[in-house]
Amino acid sequence: MKTLSRLIAVGAFFGLAGCGLGGTFHVESFLDQEISGDDFYSCLAAEYQDRATSEVYVDCEWRHSVLFAEKGRAALAGGPVAPFDPANVPWGRKVLDSELPELQEARGRLIAALDNGGRDERGCACAKAQRYYDGWVEQASDNEFGVDGAFFGGRGGPVQPERVASEKVAFYEALTECEAAAADQDFVIYFGFDKFNLTSAAMAVIDEVANFTKEFNNPTVNVVGHTDTSGSVAYNQGLSQRRSNAVANALAAQGVTVGSVGAVGESEPAVPTGDGVREPLNRRAVIEVR
User: Which of 104, 154, 276, 290 yields a CA-CA distance of 20 to 30 A from 144?
Assistant: First the structure.
């Protein structure tokens, strides 16, 4: 095993030598570092370590490896570590003007997801999204020569457009998980006894939901109506439906797309009671945002 390890090390050394050694020894300690943990920053450091390793040993891009290693080290230190700004890439080349709007919009979505609970709720998915976003920016700005042979100005488009597409697909897949984690929240609206009208307090919740969902890309919004145990089962089923309908209509009026509108009557109380009990906390509609 020791002989094999030495052979691997020698092979890696000559691989680096073939790429040009400038700057690579600045990242070797990070590439060899053992990273553990499942929080956002640990996962982000591991993602950047994997990317930095690929930049050196696969693409011979030691300059980019240094940048990813620096971000990985910052993540290990607890951040903050922001995704690359496509309008100001650190290696000097520029993203084509035609590609910039989508990259900027995607960056905004990623930052919104991170800032709205993504780092805490599903840190590794969000770390993966940031890694692939940065890879997308890198590939989109890798245009020193360009697909049509442009020199120095870098305006001919990415050298490897298929890799731009691959990074983009991987980013959006990871972003879907990151956004879903950040958007995972329930809101509750309460009703008076035998009522389904929306009070001013209820409308404040409707406004809160409308503002919350604007921060995410097409979240799933479901409404479920409930009642207490006062009254017959059949009557309460209908009352819970009227409550969920009232909430769904108010959300729609605010521009929120509601996926499903359900009603469970008295069958799922927030506070378990006996039959015929007027319990205010059970007279409610739950708005699920996923």
Answer: 104
203 secondary structure, DSSP code: H
Range of the domain at 219: 184-289
Domain C-terminal end among 158, 182, 206 = 182
- Residue 72: Cβ-neighbour burial (10 angstroms; 0-12, 13-18, 19+): buried
Q: 89 and 212 in one domain? A: no
In this prediction, residue 14 carries a pLDDT of 40
Domain check: are 81 and 165 in the same one? yes
CA distance readout (Å), 192 to 133, 206, 227, 267: 48, 17, 10, 18
Instruction: Note the pLDDT of residue 8.
Output: 35
33-81 residue pLDDT tens: 899 999 999 999 999 999 999 988 887 788 889 899 999 999 999 989 9
Query: Which residues are bridge partners to 284 per DSSP?
Result: 190
Instruction: Kindly state whether residues 170 and 196 are assigned to the same domain.
Output: no
